[in-house]
Structure formats: structure tokens, C-alpha cells
UniProtKB/TrEMBL annotation:
Role this protein plays: Part of the ABC transporter complex UgpBAEC involved in sn-glycerol-3-phosphate (G3P) import. Probably responsible for the translocation of the substrate across the membrane.
Subcellular location: Cell inner membrane; Cell membrane
Protein name in the entry: sn-glycerol-3-phosphate transport system permease protein UgpA
Gene behind the chain: ugpA
InterPro entries: MetI-like (IPR000515), MetI-like_sf (IPR035906), UgpAE/MalFG_permease (IPR050809)
Main location class: membrane
Protein topology in the membrane: Multi-pass membrane protein
Lineage: Bacteria, Pseudomonadati, Pseudomonadota, Alphaproteobacteria, Hyphomicrobiales
Source species of the chain: Microvirga makkahensis
Length: 293
């Protein structure tokens, strides 16, 4: 006979979820509420004096052409990083899922980049592609390409996309590999018996079964690009050249920490939070419809 454990009362369940609730309130809800309140204030650079100004910070923000340019830059940057990190991770996962000699070593090496801090990842890539010192920049310049991410905005964006994609591929690879290994081999073998080739089996059998994993990684990757790439941007380009790689999250830092506009920076963080929440809601509303559970 199956035995089940029953918990009487609400004291033990409350104690079990209390640590997570405390972490969420202290490190998310409290800072978010402080940012919302601060967005309605005008403060000095040291935060010693403040004045309630209502929505003036928001109005001034949407009058800045630089803010709209940061929005466009963020859209381009996030789209490229999401596409390349997901597609490259899926390709690597499908190859690693095959029975090959030394497969465990390859899987371990592919996961290692996730342990690298964003700022360190940015420093590694700027050392490789520095226009004068980079080991990989020299053959590019020798081929006749005037490679200079310090002065060329397109080159700087390419370098950012490469470093941010490389940093996040390991995370996506890990989940894609787990999803592939969870697919029953009998289903794939049945497709092969029916005469389906490798590509057809992948797109008609494997990829639809990976749709829950793909949807989850799409949401996580969007959040990663909007927030966690700050360290990479700061280390590689610092928002330059001439602000051409300044994303929304980096502009929050540049205006608040470097520019001393604490109220305007708080307003930007609130808008950024709303954008990410809206994008996540849209993904759950429309993209999840195509997910096959």
C-alpha cells in the first residue's frame, strides 16, 4: 500500500518558504519599490537633498534622442544575441548528443564558459580583438579589413554580440542537451524506419519535442541580454564609440552613476523593468501557443 506524508497545519510550510520569500522581498520588491519612488524625485548627485517632481523625469527622458537610440540599440543587440546563442547552442547540443569518443570531455569544456564572469568574458574578447594588440585582430587587418571596434560602431556591436553570445551559449547548451537526452530514442527510430532523413527527423520530431525547452531558454535569454550583459558592455566598449553601443541597462548606469542624474536613472530602470515584463508577457501570450508539451 502506498504511504503518503500529510502535513497538518500551516506552520511548517510557512517556515519552509520563508527564506525564499525573504530573499525575494529584500532583493527584488524592496529595491523595485525604492526605484519607483525615486523616479518621482529630483535629487542631487550625492542623494542628500530631494524634491518631488512627479512625472517630470519621465517627460524629460522621452525628450532625449539618445534614449530612443538606446532603445534601437537594445532591440538590435538583444535580437542578435538571442538568435545566435540559441541556434549555436542547439547545434552544439545536437552534435554532443551523438555517441562520439571523448563526448563527456567535450560536454564539460562547452559548459565551462558559463562560469566566467561577464566582465572577465568582455576583457577576454577585447584582448583577442583589440585593433593593435589582439591576436585575432591582426589577421583581420592583414586581410585588408580596417578592424577597429574602438572607433567603428558596427565593429563594436559585432564584438559585443560575439562576447555576449559566447558567454551565454553554455547555459543554453546545457538545457538543450538535457532536452535532447529526454527524447525517447524509439520515437526517432520510428521516424527513421518510416524513411525520414536526419534533417526531416530533426524538424518534424526532435525540434517540436524541444519546444518547451526552447521557449524557456528564449525567455531566459531575453532577460540575460537586457540585464546581465552590462558587465560585458562596460568592459568591452563602455557604451562607445559615441554611444553607439549604449543599451538601456548601460544608460541607466551612465546617467545615474556617471552623470549624477539619480531621478532620471531611476525612471529609466522603471521603464526597463516594464519593458522586460511586457516582453515576457507577450512571449507567454503568443509564443507559448506554439509550444507542444
Amino acid at each position: 500500500m502506498e504511504k503518503r506524508a500529510h502535513i497538518s497545519g500551516w506552520t511548517l510550510p510557512l517556515l519552509l518558504i520563508l527564506p525564499q520569500m525573504a530573499i525575494t522581498v529584500i532583493f527584488f520588491y524592496w529595491p523595485a519599490s525604492q526605484a519607483i519612488w525615486q523616479s518621482f524625485l529630483r535629487e542631487d548627485a550625492f542623494g542628500l537633498a530631494s524634491e518631488f517632481v512627479g512625472f517630470e523625469n519621465y517627460a524629460a527622458l522621452f525628450e532625449q534622442p539618445e534614449y530612443y537610440r538606446a532603445m534601437v540599440t537594445t532591440a538590435i543587440f538583444s535580437s542578435l544575441v538571442a538568435f545566435f546563442s540559441l541556434s549555436c547552442a542547439l547545434l552544439l547540443a545536437t552534435q554532443a548528443d551523438k555517441s562520439i569518443r571523448g563526448g563527456h570531455a567535450f560536454k564539460t569544456l562547452l559548459i565551462w564558459p558559463y562560469a566566467v564572469a561577464p566582465a572577465i568574458a568582455g576583457v577576454l574578447w577585447i584582448f583577442m580583438f583589440h585593433p593593435t594588440l589582439g591576436t585575432l585582430a591582426r589577421p583581420i587587418r592583414a586581410a585588408g579589413i580596417d578592424w577597429n571596434p574602438m572607433l567603428n560602431g558596427t565593429h563594436a556591436m559585432i564584438l559585443l554580440v560575439l562576447s555576449a553570445t559566447w558567454k551565454h551559449i553554455s547555459y543554453n547548451f546545457l538545457f538543450f542537451l538535457a532536452g535532447l537526452q529526454a527524447i525517447p530514442r524509439s520515437v526517432i527510430e520510428a521516424g527513421a524506419i518510416d524513411g525520414a532523413g536526419p534533417m526531416r527527423r530533426f524538424w518534424t520530431i526532435v525540434f517540436p519535442l524541444l519546444s518547451p525547452t526552447t521557449f524557456f531558454l528564449l525567455v531566459v535569454t531575453v532577460v540575460y541580454v537586457f540585464f546581465e550583459t552590462f558587465g560585458i558592455i562596460d568592459a568591452v566598449t563602455g557604451g562607445g564609440p559615441a554611444g553607439q553601443t549604449t543599451t538601456l541597462v548601460y544608460k541607466v548606469y551612465a546617467d545615474g552613476r556617471l552623470g549624477g542624474d539619480l531621478g532620471g536613472s531611476a525612471a529609466q530602470s522603471v521603464i526597463l523593468m516594464v519593458i522586460v515584463i511586457a516582453l515576457t508577457a507577450i512571449q507567454f501570450r503568443y509564443v507559448e501557443r506554439k509550444v507542444q508539451y
